[in-house]
Amino acid sequence: MATEPSYNDVYRRSMRDPEDFWAEAAAGIDWDRPWDRVLDATNAPFYRWFTGGRLNTCYNALDRHVEGGRADQPALIYDSPVTGTSTTYTYVELRDAVALFAGALAAQGVGHGDRVVIYMPMVPEAVVAMLACARLGAIHSVVFGGFAANELAKRIEDARPVVVVSASCGIEPTRTVAYKPLLDDALDLVTEKPRRCIILQRPQLTADLDPTRDIAWDDALAGVGPADCVPVAATDPLYILYTSGTTGQPKGIVRDNGGHAVALNWSMRNVYGIEPGEVFWTASDVGWVVGHSYIVYAPLLAGATTVLYEGKPVGTPDAGAFWRVAAEHGVQVMFTAPTAFRAIRQQDPEGTHIDRYDLANLRALFLAGERCDPETLRWAEEKLRIPVVDHWWQTETGWAIAATCLGIEHLPVVPGSPGRPVPGWDVRVLDDQGRELPRGQTGALTVRLPMPPGAAPTLWNADERFRETYLSAFPGYYQTADAGYIDDDGHVFVMARTDDIINVAGHRLSTGAIEEVLATHPDVAECAVIGAADELKGQLPVGLLVLKAGVERPHGEIAAEVVQMVRDRIGAVAAFKTATVVPRLPKTRSGKILRATMRKIADGEEYTPPPTIDDPAILDEIAESLHPSSR
Ligand code: COA
Ligand code: AMP
């Protein structure tokens, strides 16, 4: 009997002969035209995969499964405790819904290469809209519902969509969020308006439509026929997903069609151990990369069943929500962010809800989006008695850089580490000069180029920004902007970001973007935002404000105003609730703000003033402002 290849075998093969490795994986996808080159290095360091090849991602996610015998298998299960609904779409039903909506988009003038912005809550129509764009060869850009009008406007301005697809409202456990007024405000801010807005009217709150621009989802479908799949180049963009950079201008991460389909399809079996026909559930949001890859594309490309959950881990209605969903839909593998488990554990430390449900089918839990503290990992392992796998990736990479690949070899998980590099990813730890560091030493986590298929080839309309941001610090390597080390056994440890990105409840935020908002307050002379450790959300943003000379207003009033400004301009998702007035910001003699020291102060940790500080006394004053009388 042939033995299964070990992780080491598979990994080495992916490094030794990447073209052969990924060409073999590409056989899992249906191509309209085979590629001329597997890996095209003509424009290195901008690498392209499968150049010359043509395919349609929607065909691969839906039609081929319908034609291949899965027509009546559930493709998507929508479970929505916030509306009390649960609906199942088989592959043929989802294919038909997508083809019809693609017809509606085409009727509004959307074609190959056109952009469509999707600003929607976690409803099946969001998935339908994404796949309908893919069907036409159009490029979708989904904007997370928790962002405010101003953030939505920045994305619309950059992507210049022909059509925006949105909904009348989203439903949070404690309130109904009216999306349409946010969209209207965003459109007031942009210079080039979309031709049409298609609005899904939800019964919980309907929206007023502008007859010159808006059309209801149902009306957009009336009288149109289904649209066929349009084959596109493997290198054509499938989507743009904006993510936080160091400034307030988000980065439009581009995903191609070919490499993405190949990598995601490969990952389902090899990383997650999921076979066609099995049930995979990612509890995230379609507005994030985790949702793009593992709610929508990967499970469907692989012929699995995906669960779309419109609810929270707690409060909808209780800390047993995840176990109910997993039990009711026979989920085999699930994926979420550690923060969700911290929330569940906080409310149900003994895990008593778990015993109320039959979780016999559930065989693994994957976590990502932020560092998983070993305590949370152990709690989940102990309560669920299944492998709990932390894995590390980014919007840019599209899928896991490091993981324990359950479909290849079931190696033990080391708490605190998201596992070893996934086949295809040549992870290296470098010092400031770009020299490779020995095992165990902390440095910049990088990936030696080329990155495998599925990783972002560039930024939307911004090749230079891509090169500058990711490829220039260490020529020949992609800079992840995470710092960490690799141990003697090859486990990667991801310890911190090297830039001003913070991670709040698994949501990636730019402190720079929040600072840009604070700086516009008329009383603020200078400000800094730092990520302070938080037991539930991992990190929370804290604002430090230096007021202009002569401002006499109560500090609490100013703090409340900036909190509201961040909510209005960035969105509730920023979870910005704390701002405090300080006399000065601590700086080096050359004027650099000492963020790391302030982070320590905010976390209540011991700190020593760096030798370069211009005024050491300010640190104690800041500590007093953040933790009054605790010192
Ligand atoms: N549309 C509109 N508003 C939204 C939203 C959406 N899609 N998602 C979140 N918000 C709002 C919330 O209502 C909340 O508003 P509030 O300040 O009025 O309470 C705010 O944004 C912050 O949301 P969140 O960070 O989700 O905090 P929470 O307190 O509502 O819930 C958790 C905390 C831990 C339960 C929640 O963060 C969670 O489920 N996390 C799972 C992690 C996850 O999905 N990560 C994605 C990457 S994998
Ligand atoms: P995003 O682009 O929103 O997916 O955020 C990516 C960032 O989240 C990474 O660069 C890391 O800083 C962090 N991150 C994601 N997954 C992990 C993980 N498993 N361990 C540690 N950090 C993680």
Automatic annotation (TrEMBL):
Taxonomy, superkingdom: Bacteria
Boundaries of every AMP-dependent synthetase/ligase domain copy: 68-450
Occurrences of domain Acetyl-coenzyme A synthetase N-terminal (ranges): 7-61
InterPro entries per UniProt: ACAS_N, AMP-bd_C, AMP-bd_C_sf, AMP-binding_CS, AMP-dep_synth/lig_dom, ANL_N_sf
Pfam families listed in its UniProt record: ACAS_N, AMP-binding, AMP-binding_C
Stated name of the protein: AMP-binding protein
GO molecular function, one term: propionate-CoA ligase activity
Assigned GO CC terms: intracellular organelle lumen
Residue ranges occupied by any AMP-binding enzyme C-terminal domain in the UniProt entry: 514-592
Family, per entry: Belongs to the ATP-dependent AMP-binding enzyme family.
